[in-house]
Write a structure and sequence with these properties.
alpha/beta; Nucleotidyltransferase, domain 5; single chain; 2 domains
Length: 221
């Protein structure tokens, strides 16, 4: 008997979910939403056959939008707990790289570049070899201008590809967002990350400095 897997991907502007029965995609919802994942995710899951009920959940753990990563993981964790099923993660750039290999069939090394935050891009360089395609990628976050001067790859794919070319990087840019319907392209190792966020850089919020109050004179209230 095949296993049903619910895939949740909210780490980028795409809201992407899919319900698989083994290798067969039973139903899916994919749209470039931008914002509003928190409001749209659960209704989209509820619209799937059997309300998306599955034997396991696979969720994009990032890096990507801080909010999007948290929304996807929170929903996956809550459903996994409610249904008593395991939750596993996969990397955002791993999926975009796997999609690029299938759709573009690059013969040379290429870079996956995704929009980060605060003027930075998440990126990794890989190639078309079977060995490299099976390994989870190591991700770096770098300011756009700095990355444009240091990254030399003939092909750039991802949400940050055109941004980087516009900043002066060489190479051809192909925009790509992760698609839950394509998670079958991932290797076993790439599909078995812990369901914990990969933020790729420091938190947006910084701790506030402690407030120092002036000393009060003796007898003052």
């Amino acid at each position: 008997m095949s296993e049903r897997v619910l895939v949740i991907d909210c780490a980028t502007p795409a809201l992407s979910i899919a319900l698989f029965d083994g290798a067969d995609c039973l139903a899916a919802h994919h749209e470039t939403l931008g914002r509003g994942h928190a409001e749209a995710l659960l209704p989209a899951i509820a619209s799937l056959p059997d309300g998306g009920r599955a034997d396991g959940i696979l969720v994009d753990v990032g890096p990507g939008s801080f909010t999007g990563v948290r929304v996807g993981l929170a929903a996956a964790s809550a459903l996994g707990f409610a249904w008593g099923i395991p939750v596993q993660g996969y990397g955002c750039l791993d999926l975009v790289g796997a999609m690029a290999r299938q759709q573009l069939a690059p013969q040379e090394r290429f870079a996956i570049v995704m929009v980060g935050g605060h003027g930075e891009l998440f990126w990794a360089v890989t190639d078309a070899s079977d060995e490299q395609a099976a390994r989870p990628l190591e991700i770096t976050s770098t300011p756009i201008d700095a990355l444009a001067t240091m990254l030399d790859a003939p092909l750039l794919v991802g949400s940050g590809a055109q941004v980087l070319v516009d900043a002066g990087a060489p190479g051809r840019a192909v925009p790509l967002l992760p698609d839950a319907r394509q998670t079958g392209l991932l290797s076993v190792a790439q599909r078995n990350r812990p369901a914990r966020p990969i933020y790729g850089r420091g938190a947006d919020a910084k701790p506030m400095a402690p407030v120092t109050r002036p000393a009060q004179p003796a007898g003052a209230r």
